[in-house]
Amino acid sequence: MFGAFPSGSVVKNTTHKVVVPFYLYASLSFLVSTVLLLLSTEAFTQHYFHPHILALTHGMALGWGTMIILGASHQLVPVLIEKSLHSVKLAHASFWLAAIGIPLLVYGFFVFNMGWPAKWGGRFVLLSVICYFINLCISISKSKSKNVHAYFVLAATAWLLLTVFYGLSLVYNFTYNFMPKSSVAYLPIHAHTGVIGWFLLLIVGVGSRLIPLFLISKYKNDRLLWIIFFLINAGLISFVLIFLFAPGNSLFMLPVIAVLLGLMLFAVYCYKCYKHRIRKQVDEQVKISLLSVLMMLIPLIFLVSITGLLFSNDINGRMALIYGFIIFFGWITAIILGMTFKTLPFIIWNKVYHDKAGLGKTPNPKDLFKSKIFSLMVVTYLGGFVLFITAATLSNVLLLNIAAIILIVTAVLYNMNVFTVVNHKAKML
Amino acid sequence: MNVVTNNNIKCTIALAALENVIDPEIGLNIVDLGLVYQLDFDEEGKKIFLSMTLTTQFCPMGESITAAAKRALETTFDGEEVILNLTFDPPWNYERISDEGKKFLNY
After folding, report:
1. Which of A48, A97, A120, A403 could pair covalently with A387 via S-S, beta carbons 3.0-4.6 A apart?
2. What is the ipTM of this complex?
3. What's the domain range around A287?
4. pLDDT in tens, A214-244
5. A13 in B contact zone (CB under 8 Å)
6. What is the CATH number of domain B4-104?
7. Rounded distance, CA A344 to CA A342, Å?
8. Cβ contact (<8 Å) for A361 and B4?
9. A75 touches chain B (CB under 8 A)
10. Contact A357 B67 (CB under 8 A)
């Protein structure tokens, strides 16, 4: 009966029991991080190597960014590789190890205790990433579909593993001094393997799959994505090598240009997806995610300036602080604020309506969260973000405090909507 | 919509049932989206053969959409077994969207 149409198969989704805890943990981490931001505003008028800044950066990078991305990855990887996730147990282990390790690490940095809190925190986080990496490698090795998006995720996770291992080594170096220089000197490698290797590669890899999916775009260009993959990886590898073996060299501009070029090509890719979309009406969540693509370019312009200043020895700590703030509270937060309400409602919709769809009219996933709260969240976020950068540039503590309070409001609104989605009960329309 | 069938009357009833199955991301039903390729009916064996696709092979909602399509037919044709064949050959493309669907998407 099916002679005319050969069979395909549908990918089995990862259970919500694996994915939702990552989202909830990340939401609460975002709230805690904004409170930490308020407690650390004084530090924003000083050098970036400050215990509160280290705690805040790790709260944002691990508790917020990494946890939500790990959660979304457990859901999306099976879709990207067309194969179910290898092990649910490893996914749970990955969550619990990170959930225990991150607060220990953040606490260790906040009180600047490089003894057991930071060391055990780092060990737990490393074990968590190892669990995820093993799960990912086995899942991909079992898959017949090896597409460019899967390679982005794999490479990003390898960079994450390296970043965490290197970060833990830096913590040990505080106690044992086994590296030629102090740990502070190596922070740029740790920061950039994390930001570019982990966050950027993963966001480009997954975003290049999701953006056309959400826009229902006709545009497809794997060749362009492979060029972006090469540029970012080559840029990052050369950055690490130049940093370690030829520091202070003008060659530093080469990796910056490679990554900048990769990002510009990704912006072109997103624009073409947008231009060739079938669905003309673009929802707010996708708009803010597309905005974050433009926001990626801002820290890179900062990086070009900072790299330029390296040679004139005129670099100041505040500029590096603003650069870090734009990365974590700008680019990464913008994409997460948008993508949370594209992915989480689907996960919950699947859980709640899986047995009811087809029997009558059900709400759409976008109806699972409150759009007014979402809009208010976007307004407070953009206002707080711009005000904070202005205040940090002016070194005005009062304005920094006001901006931090606005960002706490953003985090509260975000949490309200996340908990609304997670607690959604079935209703037929 | 170009649905291949061996029974036009039953196919019309089945398509009406399948209009209740919405692609939750797009908000459009799978019939107007052009996801349904073939509907054949085996009267003696009390079987319905549904051949359908998804907008993309990577569709995260694929499991839900196919389960809903099967459930919609089983509810409408009580006592008949629904055999679903998911295919990506030929792959879905936007030209399969009905005029009503295109209007819905402002395309």
Report:
1. A403
2. 0.78
3. 16-349+364-422
4. 888 888 899 999 999 999 999 999 999 998 8
5. yes
6. 3.30.300.130
7. 6
8. no
9. yes
10. yes
